[in-house]
Every structure is written in structure tokens, then in C-alpha cells.
């Protein structure tokens, strides 16, 4: 684990698990399959959950590495406490990334669009990589509520200004359908704000 980058290590683990499954079919009795695979999973994944997440999760999320994130979720689902460890890091990532958008006054002009883009990215990762796992959806909502309320009133004020500018522009910038979709997304963000 120490010499490899996280994506490379994940592919290595996946390959080793496939090879072990093939060896069992070819050389061993089927009754040994579960304990042997569980041992390999524990040694290659279970012992390294924290280091894998600390070393590579933020990078995978920043770079939007969908395939690698899917593999990470798939592999972590196989070991005890794997999904829970991933969930905790997921919450921390959303809070940290979201806070950089909300807290920095220099980002006020772009805050709403950045929040919309970030929410789209997070939703996409949940849908594709985390197989719409309800725990990840709920954790995302709680994390958004936490960071968006770090600056009381400002996100709400900026959302109102953003909506006003979009409605004034009307059909010049977007079709009615596009405007409707955008307003729906903004309302989702707005619901995270404590009023």
C-alpha cells in the first residue's frame, strides 16, 4: 500500500481477489472459498481502510475519478466497517470543500453557481459510484446543511440575487424548461439553509 497510489492499489486488490477466486475454483474445495476470500479482503483492504481513504479519497473526489470511486465503493462494501469508514470521509470531504465555497467572501460572486455545480457533482457520484446508497444521500444533506450555514444569511441573500438575475434575464439566457430545472436545483440548495 505504501509504494502505490490509491487507484493503482485498488486495481491491484481487485485483481488479487479475482485471482484467488480463480485459484479456489481450479485447485481448492469450494468450502474454502468464503474463508479464504474473507482473509484476502481483510489483509488487503480491512487492514488499510484508513490509509487508503486518507491517502486517496479526496484526490479521487477532486479529480472526479468515477471508475476508481466505483471500485473503491465496491471493494469497501466487501469488508467490515468499510462503507462506514468511507461514509465518514465522504462527510468530511463535503464539509471541507463546501466550506471553502461559502466562507470565502471573494467567492460571493460565484458562490451560487459553485454550490450548484458541487451539488451536481456530489449527486452524480452518489448515483453512479455509491449506487444511490441512502446513507450517502442523507450524509450529503447533513454535510450541506452544516457548511452552508457557516455564514448566516449570506448564502440566502446571494441565492435570492442569483434567482432575481436569472428571472430578469428570462428567455435571453435559457429556455423556460432550462430555467425551471435551474430553479428546482436552487430550491434544493435553499432548503439546506436554516431560516
TrEMBL record:
Signal peptide (UniProt feature, chain positions): none
Organism domain of life: Eukaryota
UniProt cross-references to Gene3D superfamilies, sorted A to Z: Cullin Repeats
Gene Ontology MF terms in the entry: ubiquitin protein ligase binding
Keyword Cytoplasm tagged: no
Alphabetized UniProt keyword annotations: Isopeptide bond, Ubl conjugation, Ubl conjugation pathway
A Gene Ontology BP annotation from the UniProt entry: ubiquitin-dependent protein catabolic process
Entries under Pfam families matching the protein: Cullin
Involved pathway(s): Protein modification; protein ubiquitination
Ubl conjugation is among the record's keywords: yes
Cullin family profile domain residues: 154-195
Family: Belongs to the cullin family.
Protein name: Cullin family profile domain-containing protein
Organism ancestry: Eukaryota, Metazoa, Chordata, Craniata, Vertebrata
Amino acid at each position: 500500500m505504501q509504494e502505490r497510489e490509491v487507484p493503482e492499489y485498488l486495481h491491484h486488490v481487485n485483481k488479487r481477489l479475482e485471482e484467488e477466486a480463480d485459484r479456489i475454483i481450479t485447485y481448492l474445495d469450494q468450502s474454502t472459498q468464503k474463508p479464504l476470500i474473507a482473509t484476502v479482503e481483510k489483509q488487503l483492504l480491512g487492514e488499510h481502510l484508513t490509509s487508503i481513504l486518507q491517502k486517496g479519497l479526496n484526490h479521487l473526489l477532486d479529480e472526479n475519478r468515477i471508475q476508481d470511486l466505483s471500485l473503491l465503493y465496491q471493494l469497501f462494501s466487501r469488508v467490515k466497517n468499510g462503507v462506514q469508514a468511507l461514509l465518514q470521509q465522504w462527510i468530511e470531504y463535503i464539509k471541507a470543500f463546501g466550506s471553502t465555497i461559502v466562507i470565502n467572501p471573494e467567492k460571493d460572486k460565484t458562490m451560487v453557481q459553485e454550490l450548484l455545480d458541487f451539488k451536481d457533482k456530489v449527486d452524480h457520484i452518489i448515483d453512479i459510484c455509491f449506487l444511490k446508497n441512502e446513507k450517502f444521500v442523507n450524509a450529503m444533506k447533513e454535510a450541506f446543511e452544516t457548511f452552508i450555514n457557516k455564514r448566516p444569511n449570506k448564502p440566502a441573500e446571494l441565492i435570492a440575487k442569483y434567482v432575481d438575475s436569472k428571472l430578469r434575464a428570462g428567455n435571453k439566457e435559457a429556455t423556460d424548461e432550462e430555467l425551471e430545472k435551474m430553479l428546482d436545483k436552487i430550491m434544493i440548495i435553499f432548503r439546506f439553509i436554516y431560516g
